[in-house]
Design goal:
With 421 residues, this protein is mainly alpha-helical. It is built from 26 helices and 2 strands. The chain has a two-stranded antiparallel sheet.
Length: 421
């Protein structure tokens, strides 16, 4: 028995020390073909260093063997030695029989580096040189899928499926096509492919896409079924919970929706968007206290999110929590942060707390953007009226009545206050 076979037998028995001894003997005594096969087997078993030793030994003997260079380049990529991989691949000329394969490996390397344009170029060149090779079509489709260029991926997956190729490298192309259609908003087409996949063969991602597709088509009960099934198999799949909650909302099942989003928060408590959605659902149940609690959590999770700050500020205003609102909006006051809506809210809270000067400053700052907002104008008009600023009151009343000339209450106020002025 040759040493290569003995080495693999030792590995199968778990005798690592024995394997190492036999491996050294194989390097010295076995044929080149036998060593090459051993290197492939060892690589598939995860013994990449031993595989590398063999390829390097063979390359010294056959320095023009481009296949060996590519194998070593792949090993270098696995070890994050991109420079070495690029050097090896650069040695392969366009005249080489291995050139197309080198393009595929180069594409993988550039993709891992985030250089997607170069990766795309390499794959397109490979396809141009070998247009009938399904493995290249598949590589290009996978590249587009993984870089979210789903429309491009769809065309290639369709071509492969029409040719009878339903699976490559353990990837289900029907599944890929269904997901790609869903991601491009073509939900009817997506459903036709996703429903072909047997439930037992569905990955969590695909089950999510099927649930999302049902949801997008307004089939909320079916969406709930899929999301619940996904929750059973992978409760940590946090993306399912907002859609599960929304599906219950669409069916006016607000209490169940609230439970669903609370389950999601238990999985991902650092997701400000989930806290925001929880506040919206809590509002539908009429639990105002919970609305405020969830908005505060959302703001704590991401204090830089202005839209969340704005929602929380609105809640403080509606619920008369003006001290809390003024504290929330300190960045507006201290850093001259420009946001007209928040300036408006700050003005309302300062007014409520009797800070006339501060309220006037905030009303003035908000006016630059909200001068055509009738809600703002009405609040500002009453503020200036109450504080004796007749000029500003009438100026804003005039603006307001140009926007809402049929508001007779405000028209009477204008007539009354402008009389003799």
């Amino acid at each position: 028995m040759d040493y290569s076979t003995q080495a693999l037998d030792a590995l199968e028995r778990g005798q690592i020390d024995e394997f190492n001894k036999i491996f050294k003997a194989a390097l010295k005594s076995d044929s080149d073909d036998m060593l090459y096969s051993l290197a492939e087997e060892l690589y598939s078993l995860g013994f990449s260093e031993n595989s590398k030793q063999i390829y390097e030994q063979l390359l010294k003997k056959y320095p023009d063997d481009d296949g060996l260079k590519i194998n070593l380049a792949e090993l270098a990529i696995d070890n994050d030695d991109d420079d070495k991989a690029l050097n090896l691949l650069s040695e392969i000329s366009s005249n080489s029989d291995e050139y197309v394969r080198s393009l595929l490996v180069s594409a993988d390397l550039y993709q891992t580096q985030g250089m997607f344009e170069i990766s795309d170029q390499k794959l397109i060149e490979a396809q141009f040189l070998a247009p009938e090779e399904d493995v290249i079509k598949f590589a290009l489709a996978e590249f587009y899928f993984n870089t979210r260029s789903f429309r491009k991926a769809i065309n290639i997956y369709l071509e492969l499926i029409k040719e009878g190729t339903l699976e490559m490298s353990a990837v289900n192309l029907v599944e890929r096509l269904g997901v790609s259609y869903a991601e491009t908003g073509k939900f009817e087409q997506a459903l036709g492919y996703l429903e072909q996949i047997k439930p037992i063969n569905m990955s969590p991602d695909v089950r999510f896409e099927l649930g999302f597709t049902y949801f997008s088509l307004g089939e909320y009960e079916k969406a709930i079924t899929e999301f619940e099934e996904l929750k059973e198999t992978d409760s940590q799949y946090s993306s399912l919970y907002p859609y599960l909650a929304d599906a219950h909302v669409e069916l006016n099942q607000f209490d169940i929706a609230l439970i669903a989003i609370q389950e999601g928060l238990a999985v991902d408590q650092y997701n400000e968007e989930m806290w925001r959605k929880a506040s919206e659902i809590a509002a539908k149940t009429g639990n105002e206290e919970l609305v405020g609690e969830y908005l505060q959590k959302a703001h704590e999770t991401n204090p830089e999110d202005i839209s969340i700050m704005s929602s929380l500020s609105d809640w403080y205003i509606v619920n008369g929590k003006h001290d809390e609102n003024i504290e929330l909006l300190k960045p507006i006051a201290e850093q001259s942060f420009e946001d007209a809506h928040l300036e408006y809210n700050l003005a309302l809270s300062r007014k409520a707390n009797g800070d006339i000067k501060g309220a006037a400053t905030a009303f003035g700052a908000a006016e630059r953007e909200l001068g055509d907002d009738t809600n703002y104008l009405k609040d500002a008009i009453f503020f200036y009226r109450e504080n004796g600023n007749r000029d500003k009151e009438l100026e804003l009343l005039n603006k307001y009545l140009n926007l809402l000339p049929d508001d007779f209450e405000m028209q009477n106020m204008y007539d009354e206050d402008s009389e003799g002025f």
